[in-house]
Write a structure and sequence with these properties.
Layout lengths: L9 H8 L1 H15 L6 H11 L6 H15 L15 H14 L5 H13 L10
């Protein structure tokens, strides 16, 4: 049963439980939209932190929920809208990152920058 503060996020919660599907769908969507995301580096750093075995479970859960929300095909604000399309994704991600900021390490940020520099290729699907 969803609590009052999570109403509307149930699809993201379900997706966050299936890590393999989340990984595949994350990289697929990121490749399509990375050039349009001013927060791509933060999103990737959160991804690497979420899949880091050293990251505590509660931090992983928070970040996986935010990442799952990013890849869902429906949003509160549709991603196809110019400028506004990713504002809800950015807000959800920024909130999750603020909650767990001390767990996102310089190594996670370095990996994010390296992936963006490489052009976010399919080799990243199996990394982290």
């Amino acid at each position: 049963m969803a609590s009052d503060h999570s109403v509307g996020f149930e699809p993201a919660d379900r997706l966050a439980q299936d890590r393999d599907s989340l990984r595949r769908r994350f990289w697929s969507k990121l490749k399509r939209v990375a050039a349009h995301l001013p927060f791509a580096e933060d999103l990737l750093a959160a991804y690497y932190c979420a899949f880091d075995k050293q990251t505590p479970r509660h931090v992983q859960a928070s970040l996986l929920g935010a990442i799952a929300y990013f890849i869902l095909p429906f949003d509160f604000v549709p991603d196809v809208l110019p400028v506004l399309g990713f504002t809800d994704d950015a807000a959800v991600l920024a909130t999750a990152i603020r909650m767990v900021l001390t767990h996102i390490t310089p190594e996670h940020r370095d990996a994010a920058r390296a992936a963006l520099k490489r052009g976010v290729d399919t080799a990243d699907i199996s990394s982290a």
